[in-house]
């Protein structure tokens, strides 16, 4: 659990950020993984499950890591039993694993197209690529997650270079060890690209995490026989007993030791140019590794056995297949998005029902708990992590550099047809935590950000399983921001609602109806009237991205506002606003509100 990514955006900031985000510029170091069907570990921090975790506080550094680090790991000893020929000082990177504090680039919009194909693109009007709203939000989240480190990408890419699946010369050197990270955006993005495959199917679904340490040895021994051209190659994932400290390394040889022990020699990207060792006791079927997820700290010890499932291997072949985008596996609003893409591409994408999940990204230090309609729970409760919902998952990513020594939340996966509620509990907090909750599903995304949870505070949230509605209830003073994005048949939309002033608490509800082209906003139980701002981006294949903004929508407690975005004629046009005072089913006011986007952009105080 972490500190919030955003600390109270101003209206101008939101305007600029949304415009950049929807224009496919989400490739900054602090920006956006998907669904895995593998079994997660029993901890909220990086687990023996497949991918998924969350970011850390905004870094302040802007310097790339030292290309000649002095940190070293223990030297292995013993007689070589199997050897692929890989050597860390030649075939490993010379720079250390790094987080987003370095200023290095992560994924950008065209990297998502490379991963998932053209369906992530909403428009290319005028030569400008604009991602679909859920694709853009997923990109933001996964890039932000890399704040914890890039070990998975480094472990996988150097192995691809060694086996000839990728060419190191394409990135500026003749050997992997000679590559420089600084001022090498192509390499930075390539590392990020392979990092994210831990979180996408089919890679995440083929992680071998239920095999024993002895079985890991057998698989690696067979792989090493192939040298640079193995039938299969693997990276290794290690975790602590509670699932924390997830880290990825590159294995390359086996050494026979005394008393039935075998050393797996690995290139640990936290310790460049050095041979590290995972020791396996064949008799006891256990394993031990001395290393640290933070190169600046002393070595930590990792251990496991045949039952712990804390030692895993990831096959390279799965990474090389076309990856599946979790946010595009279904269609938004009864097939509208699929209808649209059939008309644009001339094909109708196949729906993968088994991948129809909602991803919940959590960024807060407060305890987060999901409860389904049967009262089953997933998340934190009274200091324990509960896994009571059989259809749901909580999965963590491997990072390897925990620079700021904070916990990492998992990503929660809830079946898209399963209704649930969520709570943020500040019982264990000593200071106020600012954070956000994001849900990304097939064809849509929802987010509540700038939530401030104090000690003893308990807030309730609900996102409908089809992504059409969200609500937020608090007993404290709050001014959260609401963001929604969705794919549609004729156009894609993204909305931001700013100024939710819940003085003394209250409930806000936001819902969208793509068939009617209307977005509704309702507040109840608030201490007084509020004034709200509204920002919309509409993206079409022919017109590209168009933005509408308006400020000063006044609502008293209990009122409901209806914004008819489907009737908007485009930039410069007004938008129909209807208000049902006291929400008694009768429209009391109808207005044509003007687009004041330009005025908002000129006035930073808004």
Q: What this model shows, in words?
A:
Helix content is 15%, strand content 31%. By secondary structure, the chain is an alpha+beta fold. Helix 5 packs across helix 6. It has ten helices and 30 strands. The N terminus is likely disordered. It is elongated.
Please state the CA-atom Rg, rounded to the nearest Å.
25 Å
Distance between the termini: 31 Å
Determine the number of helices (DSSP H or I, runs of at least 4 residues). Answer: 10
Q: What is the helical fraction, as a range of percent? A: 10-25%
Taking strands numbered 1, 2, ... along the chain, how are they ordered across the largest sheet? 14-13-12-17-20-21-24-25-28-29-30
Strand content: 25-35%
Largest sheet: 11 strands, antiparallel
Structural class: alpha+beta
Mean pLDDT, nearest integer? 81
Short note summarizing the structure:
The protein is built from ten helices and 30 strands. It has 606 residues and is of the alpha+beta class.
What's the topology here?
Layout: H1 11-22, E1 79-83, H2 88-91, H3 109-116, E2 121-123, E3 130-131, H4 133-145, H5 151-162, H6 185-196, H7 213-224, E4 234-238, E5 247-256, E6 261-267, E7 275-281, E8 286-291, E9 300-305, E10 311-315, H8 316-319, H9 336-345, E11 357-363, E12 367-372, E13 377-381, E14 384-387, E15 393-395, E16 411-415, E17 420-425, E18 433-441, E19 444-453, E20 458-463, E21 469-474, E22 481-486, E23 492-498, E24 506-513, E25 518-524, E26 530-540, E27 544-555, E28 560-564, E29 575-580, E30 589-593, H10 597-602
Antiparallel strand pairs: 1-5, 2-3, 4-5, 4-10, 5-6, 6-7, 7-8, 8-9, 11-16, 11-18, 12-13, 12-17, 13-14, 15-16, 17-20, 18-19, 19-22, 20-21, 21-24, 22-23, 23-26, 24-25, 25-28, 26-27, 28-29, 29-30
Helix pairs in contact: 5-6
């Amino acid at each position: 659990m972490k500190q919030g990514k955003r600390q109270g955006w101003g209206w101008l900031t939101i305007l600029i950020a949304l415009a950049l985000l929807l224009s496919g510029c989400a490739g900054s170091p602090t920006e956006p993984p998907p669904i895995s069907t593998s079994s997660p570990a029993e901890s909220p921090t990086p687990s023996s499950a497949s991918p998924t975790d969350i970011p850390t506080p905004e870094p302040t550094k802007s310097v790339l890591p030292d290309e000649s680090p002095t940190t070293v790991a223990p030297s292995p000893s013993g007689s070589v039993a199997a050897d692929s020929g890989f050597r860390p000082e030649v075939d490993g990177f010379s720079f250390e694993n790094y987080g987003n504090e370095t200023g290095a680039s992560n994924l950008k919009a065209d990297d998502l197209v490379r991963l998932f194909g053209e369906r992530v693109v909403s428009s290319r009007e005028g030569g400008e690529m604009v991602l679909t709203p859920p694709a853009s939000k997923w990109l933001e989240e996964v890039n932000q997650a890399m704040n914890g480190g890039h070990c998975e990408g480094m472990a996988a890419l150097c192995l691809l270079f060694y086996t000839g699946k990728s060419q190191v010369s394409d990135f500026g050197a003749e050997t992997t060890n000679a590559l420089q990270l600084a001022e090498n955006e192509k390499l930075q993005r390539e590392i990020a690209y392979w990092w994210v495959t831990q979180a996408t199917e089919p890679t995440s679904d083929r992680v071998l995490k239920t095999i024993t340490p002895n079985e890991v040895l057998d698989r690696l021994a067979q792989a090493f026989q192939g040298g640079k051209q193995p039938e299969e190659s693997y990276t290794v994932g290690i975790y602590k007993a509670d699932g924390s400290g997830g880290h990825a390394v590159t294995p390359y040889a086996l050494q026979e030791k005394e008393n039935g022990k075998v050393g797996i020699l690995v290139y640990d990207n936290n310790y460049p140019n050095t041979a590290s060792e995972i020791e396996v006791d064949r008799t006891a079927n256990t394993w031990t590794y001395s290393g640290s997820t933070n190169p600046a700290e002393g070595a930590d010890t990792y251990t496991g056995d045949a039952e712990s499932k804390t030692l895993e291997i990831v096959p390279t072949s799965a990474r090389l297949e076309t990856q599946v985008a979790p946010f595009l596996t279904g269609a938004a609003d009864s097939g509208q998005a699929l209808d649209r893409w059939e008309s644009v591409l001339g094909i109708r994408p196949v729906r993968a029902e088994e991948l129809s999940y909602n991803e919940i990204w959590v960024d807060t230090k407060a305890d987060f708990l999901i409860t389904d309609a049967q009262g089953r729970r997933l998340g934190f409760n009274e200091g324990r992590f509960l896994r009571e919902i059989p259809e749901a998952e909580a999965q963590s990513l491997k990072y390897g550099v925990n620079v700021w020594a904070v916990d990492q939340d998992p990503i929660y996966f809830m079946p898209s047809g399963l209704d649930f509620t969520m709570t943020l509990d500040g019982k264990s907090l000593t200071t106020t935590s600012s954070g956000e909750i994001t849900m990304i599903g097939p064809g849509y995304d929802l987010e509540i950000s700038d939530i401030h949870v104090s000690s003893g505070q308990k807030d309730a949230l609900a996102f409908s399983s089809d992504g059409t509605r969200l609500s937020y209830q608090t007993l404290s003073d709050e001014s959260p921001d609401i963001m929604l994005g969705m794919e549609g048949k004729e156009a894609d939309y993204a909305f931001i609602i700013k100024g939710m002033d819940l003085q003394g608490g209250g409930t806000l509800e936001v819902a969208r109806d793509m068939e009617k082209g209307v977005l509704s906003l309702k507040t109840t139980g608030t201490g007084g009237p509020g004034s709200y701002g509204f920002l919309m981006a509409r993206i079409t294949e022919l017109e590209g991205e168009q933005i509408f903004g308006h400020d000063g929508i006044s609502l008293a407690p209990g009122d409901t506002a209806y914004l008819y975005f489907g009737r908007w004629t485009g930039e410069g046009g007004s938008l129909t606003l209807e208000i049902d005072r006291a929400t008694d089913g009768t429209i009391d006011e109808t207005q044509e509100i003007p687009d004041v986007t330009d005025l908002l952009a000129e006035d930073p105080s808004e």
